[in-house]
């Protein structure tokens, strides 16, 4: 089954109720909930049970199934902790906070949590940063599994996994790790889509938006990502997951007169046609 979701951050600020209501009106079945503006991480950490009850009530009220909690890096005392962090005290605190977040996700009814892949720690160099991040991710996978939640990370252009081959290496090093894959992060830097396609077998969730070499979040009509090939490959893999429309405007998109709602609806329409085209 390939489902289609909408990222809660796409359309700007609003109360959680307003955000859920608008995404329901757009006709989505699933929602990805972000941890910055919709259900903030600090709110979850303060009271996982209360935050889960609120999220579950919103989901039921607006008839939206909870797909992925868009977390990013786990915070300790209000500051993000990178997966390449070597301080054992901060790492232990980070694991404890992640367990609280997993408890929230489990109680609310999410399928998965998206964490951060980790970045280069210049003090220890790339190889040790990679090894440290792998050890961290292994522990996060275990904690999530204990709560019945899938744990994914996004191999982004700002992370240690900004090259497809490195993302494959990490997936092979960390048992049970899956990706939230966004082809934009590799397309914008000119990597062949064939290289990125090799990551699909390690993918549990996806983000969909168009991009071109050197042009992130380009308008749909200028996009170079071949979603026809992607959906065909997913069908061949008998992939069971959710593809989330992810597109919010920054200053460049505002200046170009782009509309986030239009871009996500165009992408959803395109993907719905491809999913039907390759029905099993």
Report on this structure.
The strands form two sheets. This protein has an eight-stranded parallel β-barrel, surrounded by four helices. It has a two-stranded antiparallel sheet with strand order 4-5. It starts with a strand and ends with a helix. α3 runs parallel beside α4. The model has no long low-confidence stretch (mean pLDDT 97). The protein is of the alpha/beta class and 280 residues long. The chain contains eleven helices and ten strands. 45% of the residues lie in helices and 18% in strands. Pfam families: AP_endonuc_2. Residues 20-254 form the Xylose isomerase-like TIM barrel domain. GO terms for molecular function: isomerase activity. Keywords: Isomerase. This is Sugar phosphate isomerase/epimerase.
């Amino acid at each position: 089954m390939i489902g289609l979701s909408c990222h809660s951050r796409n359309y700007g600020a609003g109360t959680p109720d307003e955000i859920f209501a608008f995404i329901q009106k757009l006709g989505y079945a699933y929602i990805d909930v972000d941890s910055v503006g919709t259900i903030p991480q600090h709110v979850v950490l303060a009271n996982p049970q209360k935050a889960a009850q609120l999220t579950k009530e919103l989901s039921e009220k607006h008839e939206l199934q909870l797909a992925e909690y868009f977390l990013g890096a786990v915070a300790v005392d209000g500051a993000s902790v990178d997966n390449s962090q070597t301080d054992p005290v901060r790492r232990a605190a980070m694991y404890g906070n992640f367990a609280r977040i997993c408890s929230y996700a489990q109680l609310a009814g999410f399928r998965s949590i998206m964490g951060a892949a980790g970045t280069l720690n210049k003090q220890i160099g790339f190889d040790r940063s990679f090894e440290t991040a792998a050890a961290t991710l292994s522990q996060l996978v275990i904690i999530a599994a204990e709560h019945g939640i899938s744990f994914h990370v996004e191999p982004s252009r700002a992370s240690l996994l900004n090259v497809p081959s490195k993302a494959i290496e990490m997936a092979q090093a960390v048992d049970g790790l899956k990706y939230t894959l966004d082809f934009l992060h590799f397309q914008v830097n000119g990597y062949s889509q064939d290289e990125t396609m090799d990551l699909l077998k390690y993918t549990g969730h996806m983000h969909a938006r168009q991009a071109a070499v050197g042009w992130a979040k380009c308008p749909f009509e200028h996009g170079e990502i071949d979603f026809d090939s992607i959906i065909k490959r997913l069908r061949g893999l008998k992939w069971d997951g959710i593809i989330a429309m992810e597109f919010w405007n920054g200053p460049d998109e505002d200046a170009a007169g782009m509309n986030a709602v239009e871009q996500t609806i165009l992408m959803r329409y395109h993907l719905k046609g491809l999913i039907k085209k390759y029905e099993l």
